[in-house]
Design brief:
Elements (H helix, E strand, L loop, with lengths): L6 H11 L9 H11 L4 H17 L3 H4 L4 H13 L2 H9 L5 H5 L5 H4 L1 H10 L32
């Protein structure tokens, strides 16, 4: 894959790798994604990382994470992505749908490490990846009501 992964391909890959049954912390999903991406090419890993970062960035908004720590907010946003496209779009459309993930501590931290682990398996090297959008909590200045370049806590 020498072209960027489009949004449909990203969500299809997540669905294709979703294990049957319960996967409380998305460990099964992360393992299956890593296995699929580690088959190569490296461009597919980079494309997946870009889509994942973009999806997480779009959820990085004050109305979703105002009461959560940075890590809790990141892992909870990852859980929304891991839940699939319908759940993700529902949260984007109605921020109240984020509450059950946050209140019940539904986290999917392993999803965050998939691109790095797949890259390491493919190349034997650590990945100093960079994506267009940062996925760390409070990265989206507009989503937090600040001007770009502001500090995390500034309004």
């Amino acid at each position: 894959m020498l072209r960027p992964m489009d949004e449909d391909e990203f969500w299809h890959l997540l669905e294709a790798c979703r294990p049957p049954g319960a996967d409380p912390d998305a460990e099964g999903l992360a393992a299956a994604l890593e296995e699929r991406l580690a088959a190569g090419p490296v461009a597919a890993v980079a494309a997946f990382a870009e889509r994942l970062s973009t999806a997480l960035f779009r959820l990085d908004r004050r109305e979703l994470g105002g009461e959560l720590s940075g890590d809790a907010f990141l892992y909870t946003r990852a859980a929304v992505v891991a839940a699939g496209r319908p759940a993700y779009l529902a949260v984007l459309a109605d921020p109240a749908r984020f509450a059950p993930y946050a209140e019940e501590f539904v986290w999917a931290e392993p999803l965050l490490y998939v691109p790095d682990r797949a890259y390491r398996r493919l190349t034997g090297e650590e990945w100093g990846r960079g994506t267009v959008h940062g996925y760390e909590s409070f990265s989206d200045a507009e989503g937090w009501g600040r001007q770009a370049g502001g500090t995390s806590g500034a309004v």
